[in-house]
Amino acid sequence: MGPRPTTGLLMAAMLATPLKASAQSALTVLAGGATSLPAADAVGDAALFGIGGLAFDWTGDRVRLVASAYGGLSADEMTGADFGSASTSAEVWTSRGSAIGLTGRGSAFRIQDPFTYRVRAVRGGPAVRLHAGPLRLLVRGEVGAGSTLVEVERPDGRVRRAERDLWGRGVDVEAEWRRRSWAIGVGAGHTVSSGGDFTRGSLHARWVRDRLAVQLETGRWDTPLGGEWTGSLAVIVPLGGPAHVAVTAGRAGPDPLTLVESGDQGGVMVSWKLVTFGKPAPDVALLRWEGAAATVQFRLEDSAVRAAERVEVIGDFTAWSPEPLRQRGSAWVGELPVAPGIHHFGFLVDGEWFVPADRSGNVPDEWGRMNATLVVAEREGRNES
After folding, report:
1. pLDDT value at residue 17
2. Can you say whether the dihedral through the CA atoms of 209, 299, 287, 313 is positive or negative?
3. Domain end position, chosen among 277, 300, 322
4. pLDDT reported for residue 331
């Protein structure tokens, strides 16, 4: 197996674990640092890197596109090497829930000193996902191809060049039980590749609350080099506005296609959303007037409520008594009369308090709990928040 990209674990935490599904696209700048430790049976110092890059993410009802490009500067040329990397992935589905789809990924990685090492790979195939209440099942078949190149300059000035074609085919199964703020899941997979047979099993848990995300994962790999355990912890914390910080640590698993070895990694990465494209999501509370009477129409359509069994709205206009909403497709909807004035409200999702974190006008109450705000003027107009 060849050298392993240092930031695989870190970038997985940033790009593969979105805090919230969005119908918008976003361009994000990433900056931070990472460390790569030698294998348990190897002798050596940890390699430290400064990292920066850009990521683009677009998520729609049936399509998701993710692309990133980043580079790293080694803190010590004796223990590490400067590198550049790029990756892209795409998913296309026949519907939002249970569906048939196609997935594809491409990646490239390169270091130049102290020797040239390059790896390129593409992979993809059909997929099936099933949604049954809080249960999610994903079965994915995948075939892949790629190449590696190593060039080493000898003392006599001649260059030793070694190329290798890569190929692989396999299947992965993931099952996850999701609730509004947490999820647990298991996974298994088997791949036959140019480097031999790889089999894995995994267990993960995720907790998300007010955009804070914590994910813990452990797995067991059987590879041509023997069996080994892997595991990781990732924590993503909002810094305010469009900025987040991700802290990761653990042992990343091998890649059966590119033959990148497993290894200990960790780091801290700050992400700042530079710009978003597309229209913003519609407000959860839309004010309607009929003559002098006002009603508010609620429509809650958020990744946090898609697996909910019961959603209610509660606020001062309900005398803080829960009023049930009805499910319509992937949204929860309802309508209530409202008097002029400044109102505060929120939602109960399976009994837990919820307010969309990105809604303007959110204010804390005397217990520190966030409340949404709705302003109804004395005369006909539109709601302000």
Report:
1. 44
2. negative
3. 277
4. 83
